[in-house]
Each structure stands twice: as structure tokens, then as C-alpha cells.
Amino acid sequence: MTFPTSHASRFAPDKHLLGLFDARMRAAAEPDEPGSRVERSAAVVRQVGASPRDWHGVLYSQLDADTADAVISAEIAYFGELVGPGGALEWKLYSHDRPADLGARLAAAGFRAGEPETLFVAEITQLAAGLPEAPPQGVTLRAVTTAADADLVAEATEAAFGGGGDRARARVLARLAADPETVWTWVAMADGRPVSAARMLVHPGTGFASLWGGGTAPEWRGRGIYRSLVAHRMRLAAALGCEFLQVDATDQSRPILERLGFRALSVTTPYEYHF
């Protein structure tokens, strides 16, 4: 498998951290969305959504050249029965997964590769000195605690990424229904409107918290909003006893995370199969 130069450059993964991530966050993964479940077989770890239109995917695999094609076919058949026509399956592939041509095998089976992102992990104790204490001037961070706040998250997501607002809203509403006492999502407000949204998941028993979102409306980029959202979530994760932060970063976020002390461990590419 090959990736764009921007992802491959300066890539020297920490094998110890990568091993921790694989063992704790992939092989021992727990559901990351309300109502979902994680299933394990000898070959894969998969997440099954609560409904056919929820996110479904393969999180981790232990394959070789002799077993890969049969397992891929079996996962397509398994999820096809679960989600039916119009549903989708995502195989979350990492560049260090085996066999080395797993991406090509997925493509041959009908999966389509999405945009690759860099997997970053940082030890929280190494980050505190480099993170801002407060949001940039004119920006406030708003905790997402109500259905109205979910609309703000959707608006911020649309502004940052040009789509995905409906899914972001649904995810927030499901999280609020499942855990109304805990804040997991925040919106950055500027000039009276949402310009960025970010969420955090804590993974009990792993020492990890994962950071998601953080994309910013184009006219507000480069002002420190993303750094501020990372800082806010890092401090909350530390207060909850987490040791590590994990981020899947786009090219826009990668330079910021590198300057803060995050380490690039692998490249992750979503391979999607539509039924």
C-alpha cells in the first residue's frame, strides 16, 4: 500500500506506543457510539451499529495472504445481511496492517478508499507546556448539553467540512440521551455563530482518550481555535486519569499536532463498501 507524500514524510513511528494502541484501542475495542456493540472473531474485531443506518465497520484484523480474501468476503456477507440495501460497511485500515497488500485486496472486493489520515498519539504529560490556557480572543467554547446545541454542532460541521451535519447532530443527540450528565462535545462560538465543533471519547481501562472533529470554518482557520479545543479536551482527559490522547489527523491538523508533541504512528484509510 502506498500513500501521498504528505502522509509518508517524517514518518518514524514509536513501536511501543503503536503496540499499546493496537492492543488497547483496536484488539480490545469497546463500542464508541450509543447502542452499538463490538464483536470478535479469530480474524477481526467489528463494530455493529444499533440500526442498519448507523456506523458499521471492521476495527482490527489479524490476517495473512492465505486468509485475507476469505475473511473479506465473509465480512461483506455478514454485514450485508445486517444492514441490507442502502447500508454501508467501513474497513478501517492502518498502514501497518497485514498483509501488506490488504488495501488492494479490499479494493478488488469492491471497497472504495477514502481520504487517508495520520494516526497521532501523545502522552498527556508531554503536552501541557505547549497548549494555550484560553481560547483566542473573540472565541468562546460552549459545552454541548441540549438538543439546540446539537444543531450548533451540525452547523459548525457543515461550515468546516461542507457536509456531515446531519450525522454529527444524530451522534450528539444519541450521546446526550445515553449520558446526559457528561459533556463530551464542545462548540467554538465566534461572532455569534458556531465555527468549530469537537468531541472527546474516554476509553475506560485503556489509558486513552480519543479526540474527534475540530475542523474549523475556513474564515476562522489559523487563529488557534483547533489548538484551544485540543487543550481543553486534554485537560479534561488528564483530570479523568487518562495517559494518552489519540487523534486521526488530516493534513490541515497534522502540522499543529506535530508542534504540540504528538507522534505519528501510522496512516489510517477508510475503505467503504456500499450494499
Automatic annotation (TrEMBL):
Transmembrane segments: none annotated. It comes from the Bacteria. Residues 139-275 form the N-acetyltransferase domain. It holds the Pfam family Acetyltransf_1. InterPro entries: Acyl_CoA_acyltransferase, GNAT_dom. This is GNAT family N-acetyltransferase. It comes from Catenulispora subtropica.
